[in-house]
Design goal:
Blueprint: E1 2-6, E2 10-14, E3 30-31, E4 34-35, E5 47-51, H1 55-67, E6 71-75, H2 78-87, E7 92-96, H3 104-118, E8 124-128, H4 135-140, E9 146-149, H5 154-165
Length: about 170
């Protein structure tokens, strides 16, 4: 465990955990006494624009979407998301809120303008670490269609996908 701090500038904290890699589990296998639920996917595979600046979060979300049978296109910030959305057709957008270059709120507003021009409604679902009281309402009031808090659970993500693409 360590810390580096500079008055008036901030602090950096770190820690190291010696972990051993565990063998991958398959749906239906159990870890200890807790079974991993098998996923029952949505009615059809979807084309999803996944907008996430964190490489780790992208990898986890991409694996979840692939297990559900969906195809995902990656964008690492809001500006890239707007560009991809203007060039490709998607059934849904999963949008991180806090990102460099252009945040998820600004990107969503631009995507919503494009939707008005084309007449095609594509749901934009926030995927965010903002999970304090009032965050959900604040984010939804900015034009996003739904909200999923991080860390994302597969069933929570699947429910949001079903809710917004039914």
């Amino acid at each position: 465990i360590g810390v580096a701090s500079e008055p008036g500038k901030g602090s950096t904290f770190w820690f190291t955990l010696p972990l051993e890699k565990q063998p991958q589990q398959k749906a239906g296998d159990s870890v200890g006494e807790t079974p991993i639920p098998a996923f029952s996917g949505s009615l059809r595979p979807l084309r999803i624009l996944l907008v996430e600046d964190s490489a780790i979060s992208r990898r986890v979300l991409l694996q979840m979407l692939e297990k559900m049978g969906h195809a995902a296109t990656i964008a690492v910030n809001g500006a890239e998301a707007v560009k991809r959305f203007s060039r490709q057709s998607f059934d849904m957008v999963l949008m991180d809120i806090q990102m460099p270059v252009m945040d998820g709120i600004a990107a969503t507003k631009q995507i919503k303008v494009m939707q008005k021009e084309t007449g095609k409604k594509v749901p934009v679902v926030a995927i965010t670490a903002n999970a304090m009281a009032g965050d959900r309402e604040r984010i939804l009031s900015q034009g996003l269609d739904d909200y999923v808090a991080k860390p994302v659970k597969m069933e929570t993500l699947a429910d949001a996908i079903r809710r917004n693409t039914a």
